[in-house]
Write a structure and sequence with these properties.
CATH class of the largest domain: Mainly Alpha
CATH topology of the largest domain: Growth Hormone, Chain: A
Shape: globular
Number of strands: 0
Helix content: over 70%
């Protein structure tokens, strides 16, 4: 039976194979590749890079923006939180909108809106204007990110080309954050913090031109409707969870506000899951996450992102506060990490994924990542970049490069085309929530350990006759690094746990083995 909403495409099911993809244009056979697919990949990758960059590029510019706009220390978190709340909370809605109205159309709207919001942010004359622009960036990123990944999924439905395309996409998804730190340092030092926002405008406009000329997609699903109760429950729950984790970093995990907000978020998400089993047009069809390999991939993705954000957070602090690096130098220090991710994704994972089961890549990758993270637990105030940080970051980057591609590819394989947008949104949600958890949880661990260390050591020193300013500074730096290394150790444990879960939950076969089975039927 044909799905009338997809021209020339037999109806897809949740159990469809990775090769099940709709036509890229009306009248074009399903198995005929898009002649412009590699140019299309360049457009999709450019948009994805812009979204990923904005998760970190503003971090470097924040001190300058704070001084220029008179933002207090208590309010500066909203420059980051406004973006993450809107982005993480609205991803499921953005993914379903892409499925209903068309991915290409949603992609273009997301690009134009993101560019406009970035221009508003760069021109901010006060803190409220900056907060609003960052929230608008998050709204349009929630449209842009899932439509980009779902366009990639349908442009490269199967085979070696899919592995290569996803390798490039995964390298950008993993390495873009580090590139954002570098670019943020360059723009802030050489131009102005405002250019960390303005830079999105020309990038988005180029991507819009490319999208109009190169991207192909079906029209939206006719007669479909949006699950409004699901939107309120699912998006409300995600907003509460992301907000709760972001506030926990500032006011503590045991505060009444954090516990209340997190409880509300959990309650809303539980109700959302119940409602999705009864809705005639669910926002997130639960068969998407119930499938063992897909659900396992999304859990592993969240845990991997926790570890990655842990590395960015504490290494950035260590390089600038302990080693005295400038923002630009700190950004340059992350290039080997990005290089490891790019090489692991494009040269190893992309070549092997068509031939081996996904867990044969992601489990070794996570073990390497955990090893690289663990090596960073030996940092102290006398550590050097070349001798102590560089080896660990290279190992971490290479391991993550082996990990991201099989996770993203497995999570988006075998989905009916009409559900590809919301599936891609769920993958992005796992990343976003993992990043929020990683930032708040690991930072709480670090600050708690540091406070305990300083309390005991400064008190002991006071009993022994006091401290000179240099001695006090030495103890503070030692305590700060001790907090970092304990938190990094927890990040390594989380990556190790992700490897175990990946080995147990993800048991899919290689694309070659699946193709052999299909040809034998």
């Amino acid at each position: 039976m044909s799905d009338p909403s997809i021209p020339g495409r037999p109806g897809g099911t949740a159990s469809g194979r990775p090769g099940d993809a709709e036509t890229s244009a009306p009248g074009q056979p399903v198995d005929e590749p898009d002649p412009h697919r590699w140019w299309a990949l360049a457009v999709i990758a450019t948009a994805q890079l812009m979204v990923v960059l904005d998760a970190t590029i503003v971090n470097i510019a924040l001190p300058s923006a704070q001084r220029a706009l008179g933002i207090s220390n208590g309010n500066r978190q909203w420059v980051i939180t406004a973006y993450t709340l809107a982005f993480g909370g609205l991803l499921l809605l953005g993914g379903r909108i892409a499925d209903l109205v068309g991915r290409r159309r949603t992609f273009i709207i997301g690009l134009i809106g993101f560019a406009g919001a970035s221009a508003i942010g760069g021109a901010s004359t006060g803190q409220e204007m900056l907060y609003l622009s960052r929230a608008l960036q998050g709204v349009f990123a929630a449209l842009l990110a899932p439509s980009a990944l779902s366009l990639l999924t349908t442009t490269f439905p199967t085979g070696k080309e899919r592995a290569k395309a996803f390798g490039i996409f995964s390298a950008i998804a993993g390495g873009g954050s580090a590139i954002g730190l570098l670019l943020g340092g360059i723009l802030t030092e050489w131009l102005s913090w405002r250019w960390c926002l303005y830079v999105n405008v020309p990038i988005a406009l180029l991507a819009v031109i490319g999208a109009f000329t190169l991207l192909k997609d079906r029209a939206g699903t006719k007669g479909a409707h949006l699950d409004i109760p699901g939107v309120f429950l699912g998006c409300g729950g995600l907003v509460a969870i992301v907000y709760g984790f972001s506030r926990a970093e500032a006011i503590g995990w045991t505060s009444t506000e954090v516990l209340t907000v997190l409880s509300i978020g959990v309650a809303l998400l539980v109700t959302f899951a119940w409602w999705q089993t009864r809705s005639s047009g669910p926002l997130l069809p639960l068969h998407i996450v119930r499938e063992r390999n897909r659900g396992g991939s999304m859990i592993v993705m969240a845990m991997t992102t926790i570890g990655l954000f842990g590395a960015f957070l504490f290494l950035t602090y260590f390089l600038q506060t302990i080693l005295g690096y400038s923002p630009l130098s700190a950004g340059l220090a992350f290039l080997p990490l990005s290089a490891g991710i790019i090489i692991g994704s494009t040269q190893i994972s992309a070549r092997l994924l068509p031939l081996v089961p996904p867990r044969m890549l992601l489990v070794p990758g996570l073990l390497l990542s955990a090893g690289g993270m663990f090596s960073l637990t030996f940092l102290d105030t006398h550590s050097t970049y070349a001798g102590h940080i560089l080896p660990g970051t290279i190992l971490l980057g290479f391991g993550l490069g082996l990990t991201f591609l099989p996770i993203i590819s497995t999570a988006t394989s075998g989905v009916a085309p009409r559900d590809s947008g919301v599936t891609s949104a769920t993958v992005n949600t796992a990343q976003q929530v993992g990043g929020s958890i990683g930032t708040s949880l690991l930072n709480t661990i670090a600050t708690t350990v540091t406070a305990s260390y300083l309390t005991s050591h400064l008190a002991a020193a006071a009993r022994e006759g006091g401290l000179t300013p240099a001695e006090r500074r030495s103890i503070v730096n030692t305590g700060t690094v001790h907090g970092f290394t304990v938190a990094i150790a927890w990040a390594a444990i989380i990556l190790l746990a992700a490897a175990v879960l990946g080995a147990v939950m993800i048991n899919g076969k290689s694309p070659r083995a699946r193709a052999a089975e299909e040809s034998a039927v």
